[in-house]
Amino acid sequence: MATKEFPLVPQEVPVVETKYRTIRTAIPVPESIDLLKKLRDLEPRSMGGQPPVIWHRGDGVCIHDPYGNKWLDFSSGVLVTSSGHGHKEIVAAITNMAAQGMYHAYCFPTEIRGKLVAELTRLLPAPLKRVFMLTTGSEAVECCIKLAMTHGRKVGGEGKNIIVSFDNAFHGRTMGSQLAGGSPGLKAWMSEDSRFVQVPYPDGFRQKDTGFEVFEKAMGDKGVDPDDVCGVISETYQGCNACLMPGSYAQSLRKWCNAHQAVMIFDEVQAGFGRTGAPFGFSHLGVVPDLAACGKGIAGGMPVAAVLGTEELMSIYGPGEMTSTHSANPICAAAGLANLEVLRKEGLAENAAKLAPVLAEGCRRITKAADGKIGHWDSTGLVGALQFTKPGTTEPTPAPAWEIVHRAVGSGVMLFAPVGVGGCAIKINPPLIINKEALREGLSVLEEIAGQM
Ligand SMILES: Cc1ncc(COP(=O)(O)O)c(C=O)c1O
Fold this sequence. Notes:
This protein is α/β, with parallel strands linked by helices.
């Protein structure tokens, strides 16, 4: 969680001029300070915490401020703009739909929604069959929780209402999604809810034993009767790291869910649509969940989310009983359809798979250069995470993580503020259109900075 602000004091930085990066001013830019201050004064403090750069224009893997500076984007916003910034096919889809005068259609049928759900369902492995369009990842997670709880009541009565999730999980910031989250600090504003139980996530770092027995033991230790569990939800890789759930663990979990009539839910909000080098994170695990919550990378930057589900679960509620005002808003749906076409035509999941070893090697080199400050790194596809910890422990040390973000931004590489346990992880997740040259350039910048700290 970003709990600090970068200072609004312009600092002189060396001039940078490459194909992908231009830094010509002090950072933050002196002329930007008034706007940055205004935002700090008028918005909740929670909107702060990101590097003090005005995002103005995007093209491909680069973002520009209004003052002539250009950054190589290693953030994709927050893992959203997989097809890059300002892709011409997405721009055309948005402008054409806007020109048609169709900005909003609620749940009334539209051609564009029909095309989008047809394209999405084509990607689904059986038994996933239906798609429910929503707006945010948290909303998709809430919907999955509601369907699992409703299904639980149906098959096991009122007491079958426990949702199991994982330590350090992040599922969003609305009430249900946060209850399912695995960071106690983020839900300190609510009373404890015994229907939400967390178990260790098999990341191989904070939880060394990645066997499924740990899941069963944790449930026993917490006094949970498996038959009271209505659903188990997990990210396919956790946002605070980039570590996919081990396949054997996921397969045991699948069997466990079947045995106890619990709905298996994967949160694919970050991992879905090519980020891991495959259509979904679960594509690597040898299992298919009953429900998947998707968002972020579906629509090239427009607010689109979706729940993917089985016939049985998606038929629980009748007409008009599960709706959302902006469900597949026509402009967003047009962007979504164009984005899916770009992902397919340009082979962006394949590009993520092809460049995965380059990112992994970069993470390894940055870790080596950091000389003991990075306790653990993971990467999968085009997402990497480096966790700064006290040497030999898992204790977070956020200060060097913030320092590396600060210096990277001053050098023309855009990262978002550190995330994860104690704010100790920096994430590297460029648009999936990136090429080897640009990826290597940004990774070398980070390696150099890590070596100077
Ligand atoms: C794994 C995961 N799930 C859910 C969410 C929530 O998505 P949104 O911010 O669109 O509500 C996020 C957002 O970061 C996420 O990373």
